[in-house]
Amino acid sequence: MDHFLYRDGALYAEDVPISEIAAAVGTPFYVYSTATLLRHFKLFDDALEGTEHLVCYAMKAASNQAILKTLAQAGAGMDVVSAGEYLRAKAAGVPGDKIVFSGVGKTADEIRTALTGGIRQFNVESEPEMEVINAVALELGVIAPITVRVNPDVDAKTHAKIATGKSENKFGIPIARASEVYARAASLPGLEVIGIDVHIGSQLTELEPFEMAYTKVAELAERLRSEGHNIRRLDLGGGLGIPYTRSNDAPPLPVEYGALIKKTLGHLGCEIEIEPGRLIAGNAGLMVSKVIYVKSGEDRDFLILDGAMNDLIRPAMYEAHHDIVAVNEPMPGVEQRPYDIVGPVCESGDTFAKERNMPPLEAGDLIAFRSAGAYGAVMSSEYNTRPLIPEVLVNGDQFAVIRERPSFDEIINRDTIPSWL
Ligand SMILES: *Cc1c(COP(=O)(O)O)cnc(C)c1O
């Protein structure tokens, strides 16, 4: 459920007409709903009620500070994967003891940044990384709390580019080697082993892979405890999928996911962390774009938009589907027709949808990509020297620009010309 609904024939974000935002900020732009962000956070928080837990929003999904602050004020922690994300979370007011640091290749500088500013824990991804965290902690005279990310070798049954829990993936250490790695961690004086971390992939649409992974984590926790480790926190990653279309089967609900966590791991009495990103932000955001031209092709018509693959790369990168709707609600019974919906970038990959049925549209009409809140703005670029598009946050009947569109001068002046030219 989200808060982007038609009212009197026009698409709204909460109580604000999309067309009003478009008139104020120009197109294309991203718009997020506060109510939807908070609703999704609360679904997870409630799903773990009765268990000591922290929902750490995976901020790589949508990292604008206004979004972080909205969630942090509701009680969320943050899952970060770089020093930049760490500093952004701090800038948004998130305390270090609510920030967990994930990511496959943390550099010594990044580790130093987090240890200096305060960190809840590092989720360690390899033995060499563990040695570096230990060395930096000793250098700073602190102890770094860690979990080790284990790779449970389960098939997440998701798109290959976002599956992370198979033994062939680069993530974590093989669960079979966990005893050895934990023994090494326990011997390093700069580290304190506090738990286990696992994250098997993104956009999972079934509970079964989670169940297989969490069952393995439960067995591992018992084994590590018997080997003398004080396992008291389990970080279970993110990955619960969202419905990208209204027609297909809905993925499991957070409440079902929470019940599975309690069933597979509840007996251990550990504190639980989860790191949802997509489910919190995905359906809390739209990308709004304008039709520039309608071009008749030989066997199809093209809608050429002012938004492009650099603004929303998911279709080009993951063959992702986004529902696309007209901002002016189509009259009931209007005959739809198929369009290829494309951006202006010089790549055939700059195609958002092929033969998509839409109501008849004209140049100047606004359309909205649904489910664009996660892995949308954060993955955008200035390819073709197209400015990053603005982000807008709606809260009830108010809206605010939370990232401005840069001017062409700002973009161009970022280059520096060497003295010999
Ligand atoms: C990407 C990622 C997440 C979030 O995944 P979603 O599918 O957006 O919920 C959580 N944890 C880690 C370690 C990740 O890499």
From TrEMBL:
Protein's UniProt keywords contain Lipoprotein: no
Any matching Pfam family: Orn_DAP_Arg_deC
UniProt EC number: 4.1.1.20
Binding site for pyridoxal 5'-phosphate: 239, 275-278, 375
Catalysed reactions listed for this entry: meso-2,6-diaminopimelate + H(+) = L-lysine + CO2
Pathway the protein contributes to: Amino-acid biosynthesis; L-lysine biosynthesis via DAP pathway; L-lysine from DL-2,6-diaminopimelate: step 1/1
InterPro entries in alphabetical order: Ala_racemase/Decarboxylase_C, DAP_deCOOHase_LysA, De-COase2_C, De-COase2_CS, De-COase2_N, Orn/DAP/Arg_de-COase, PLP-binding_barrel
GO MF entries: diaminopimelate decarboxylase activity
Positions of post-translational N6-(pyridoxal phosphate)lysine modification: 60
Domain Orn/DAP/Arg decarboxylase 2 C-terminal: 29-373
CDD domains: PLPDE_III_DapDC (cd06828)
Residues annotated for substrate binding in this entry: 278, 314, 318, 347, 375
UniProt keyword Amino-acid biosynthesis present: yes
Cofactor: pyridoxal 5'-phosphate
Keywords, sorted A to Z: Amino-acid biosynthesis, Decarboxylase, Lyase, Lysine biosynthesis, Pyridoxal phosphate
Taxonomy, superkingdom: Bacteria
Orn/DAP/Arg decarboxylase 2 N-terminal domain residues: 36-281
Matching PROSITE patterns: ODR_DC_2_2
Enzyme class: lyase
The protein's role, per its UniProt record: Specifically catalyzes the decarboxylation of meso-diaminopimelate (meso-DAP) to L-lysine.
Binding partners and assembly: Homodimer.
Family to which this protein belongs: Belongs to the Orn/Lys/Arg decarboxylase class-II family. LysA subfamily.
Protein name: Diaminopimelate decarboxylase
Organism: Ruegeria haliotis
